[in-house]
Amino acid sequence: MTDAALQHPSVQHVRACLDAANHPYSVIALADTARSAGEAALALGVPVGAIVKTLVFMRMSGNEPVVALLAGDRQCDLAVLAKILGDDAECTRPRADVVKAATGYAIGGVSPIGLPPDITVIMDQSLFRFDVVWAAAGHPHCVFQATPDDLYRLTAAKVADGLSVAPKG
Predict the structure, then answer these.
(1) Could you count the other beta carbons within 10 Å of the beta carbon of residue 124?
(2) DSSP character for 112?
(3) Residue 2: what pLDDT?
(4) What CATH number is given for 2-165 in this structure?
(5) Residue 26: what are its φ and ψ, rounded to 5°?
(6) Sign of dihedral through CA atoms 109, 114, 119, 124?
(7) Residue 56: beta bridge partners?
(8) 106/52 Cα distance (integer angstroms)
(9) Can you list the positions of beta strands (E) in the chain?
(10) Domains in the chain: boundaries
(11) In whole angstroms, what separates CA 103 from the centre of its chain?
């Protein structure tokens, strides 16, 4: 599966974006899936927090997609997200088909790079706790590594403090 995963069109798109940005690391394919932060961390042997969760939300005002980049050990605070976006409109999680239509990626492999240019990307400050983070690369078996600064540069994200909270329990 790993060789086939690297040939997937979405992965090829991510690879092209990384190459165009002169990113020093390429996409790697994992034997096990990395659909969740926990799976990715286990496959890579890294802390769950070092996995970038690329979460897609829809702004109810205007029905626009928004991407939040969070550490794998955190959850998005939707009230804070709405304030960061400059309104108090509710943000909700869309269906899988809406995520695919908005980003070009299927859930389980949504990459933070190579997104359409009109999507707002917000990056949580908590990712800067790590020297290296790992993000999805367009397929459930594929990831790439970056420093948080590289991720910021690659995504043109707005960095926000307080976007995430530690999960309860």
Answers:
(1) 27
(2) S
(3) 62
(4) 3.90.960.10
(5) -105, 180
(6) positive
(7) 67
(8) 16
(9) 28-29, 52-59, 64-71, 75-76, 91-92, 120-124, 133-136, 142-146, 158-160, 164-165
(10) 2-165
(11) 11
Is residue 48 within 8 Å of residue 95, measured between CB atoms? Answer: no
Q: Does pTM top 0.70 for this prediction?
A: yes
pLDDT of amino acid 63:
79
Give the amino acid at 98.
V
Which 3 state secondary structure label does DSSP give 151?
Answer: helix
Per the document, the length of the chain is 169
Return the structure tokens found at 136. 């999805």
- Classify each residue of 131-149 as buried b or exposed e, where b means 16 or more C-beta atoms within 10 Å of its C-beta: eebbbbbbbbbbbbbbbbe
pLDDT along the chain (169 residues), means of 10: 83 97 95 87 95 93 89 93 81 93 94 95 97 96 97 96 83
Range list of H helices, 28-77: 37-44
Instruction: Please tell me whether residue 90 adopts helix, strand or coil conformation.
Output: coil
Q: Is 7 exposed, middle or buried (0-12, 13-18, 19+ CB in 10 A)?
A: exposed
Alpha-carbon span 153 to 34, nearest angstrom: 23
